[in-house]
Amino acid sequence: MLLTISTTHFPADDLSYLLHKHPGKIQSVDLSAGKAHIFYPEVSDEKCTAALLLDIDPVGLVRSAGPKGNDFALEQYVNDRPYVSSSFMSAAIAKAYSSALNGRCKDKPELVDVAMPFTVKLSVLPVKGGELVLRALFEPLGYQVNAVQHTLDPTFPEWGYSRYFTVELSNKLTLQQLLSHLYVLIPVCDNDKHYWVNQEEVEKLLEKGKDWLETHPAKEMVVRRYLKNQRLLTNQALGGLLSKDEIKEAVENEITIEGMTDIEEPQLRIHELRLHAAKEELLLAGAKRVADLGCGEGKLIKLLLAEKQFEFVLGMDVSYRSLEIAKERLKLERMPERQLQRVRLIQGSLTYRDKRLEGFDGAALVEVIEHLDEPRLAALERSVFEFAKPGVVVITTPNAEYNVRFADHQEGKMRHSDHRFEWTRKEFESWGTDLAVKYSYNVIFKPVGEVDAEVGALSQMAVFSRRDEIAEQLV
């Protein structure tokens, strides 16, 4: 697949400075399943064209295949990936044109903010939804779109058209803006990605779309497709695109930005029960310095700050926008200085060791663990229990046995599309017991919510107490 970028800006060869690629050389960069070659078909003061040609190795593509579902058994062997502009092209843009994509130009930094006339050609681009979708994505950004749709087979015109287009886009803008649009919208057109989509993709999307996506009329479709239709990640990203006024509205109306559950939980009060249960356990343990890990929009933090026992409360979440909402909900900007010293919000991931989490009496993880794949859950265990080592750790998670009580229950369906697992009481207790033994904690298990005689409570809770803390209290 081929991407060319042309400009008639004078002098046109300024493009080579912006791209950090010498026009007299053919250069190559390695990709996960092939190579990207960069060269200049034409260079003059009047016009300059840079070409990015992808050479995808079909065998390497199979070997590097990640965890993705297949529509049929031989999809990884029989597909269009070596021949079309897809997420491989976005990856090539990020690697071959990284300086330009990030707004850097060493030799002529003044060019970064110069809007230039550009013409982009893509051969070929798969577009799910056809030309209407293609125009809906690019035209609101000021592009003139010229698209030629290809037939399925010229020999059999009665078969109709394929989803493949040769596309020409024209616009006047900075090169960084152009590359950011292409980086995001090429896989959106394709509605697929060649790699596993996780939390990092939310941050990439918000970074690359920070100057244009918030006002794009098709932003919901862009976000959903870019994140491969994962609901939790989609809602996090859309939350990240809210304006300050929209954040205020969300707080005032108690709107949950992170997304609703797929299965409606009875009474819609269970989350409040979890938060109060966590608070009571931390109070009972005598904790004074507490960390709310995966704090979301700050509801538990608000409960904890109402208790004088808690001298300091740390809230940590991977979502920056959730922290912005928490800041608004807690009214930190209007909080008295003495009260403000009791709370701190930080961004971070629980799957990495973080020294900021050390030295706390207690920690809470309310409905957090079930959103992690097993390898990442193991990393969280080490981060919390081996490195941070709070005196008491309160963890809540759904009780999978209770799901049969939901009116719309379906066998095998979890409460939330982003849940990686939902444990029975026996599974949760087995995990918690092994964890306590491994890291020298004692653990007790409790139900959260009304208990059904057959299937237990809607949620379940484990309270871990560090053994050396217990010994110190006895002395």
From TrEMBL:
GO biological process: regulatory ncRNA-mediated gene silencing; RNA methylation
Domain named Hen1 N-terminal: residues: 1-240
Molecular function GO terms recorded: metal ion binding; RNA binding; small RNA 2'-O-methyltransferase activity
SUPFAM superfamilies in alphabetical order: S-adenosyl-L-methionine-dependent methyltransferases
Cytoplasm among keywords: no
Methyltransferase type domain mapped to chain residues: 292-391
Name of the featured protein: Small RNA 2'-O-methyltransferase
Organism: Mucilaginibacter gracilis
Taxonomic lineage from the root: Bacteria, Pseudomonadati, Bacteroidota, Sphingobacteriia, Sphingobacteriales
